[in-house]
Amino acid sequence: MFEEFGGAVLGALAYSAIGIVLMVIGFFIVDWLTPGKLGELIWTHRNRNAALLLASNTLGVGLIVVGAIWASRGDLLEGIVSTLVFGLIGLAAMAVAFIVLDLLTPGRLGDIVASGELQPAVWVNSAMHLSLGGVIAMALS
Fold this sequence. Notes:
Layout: H1 2-33, H2 38-44, H3 48-72, H4 76-104, H5 109-114, H6 120-139
């Protein structure tokens, strides 16, 4: 019983650490794709567009982590490796989707995200982030 509990605690710590690392990487990717400093846009200027985009990125990563845990079926090493690999794939896919959407639509998406006015384009991009997180999570099973 205690061995199972210890393994579960170790798994929770490992998945949490990897999830946090992936979310931090996601923060830097969104920061790179948008003009200005993302932290200032959200916390100082209270920019809802930037907050929505970062939140969707974070939720997309969360879906991938959950999918990796589910697909590992109790094999901690397999789960940790797949979480890291598929999490990085997910972040790359989200960045590519942002760039492709930027190329296909008028204006610069980064500038739209940084706008103080709530922009519908950010909702579309956010939906893409969540969808990609779900798609990659399902690819794990």
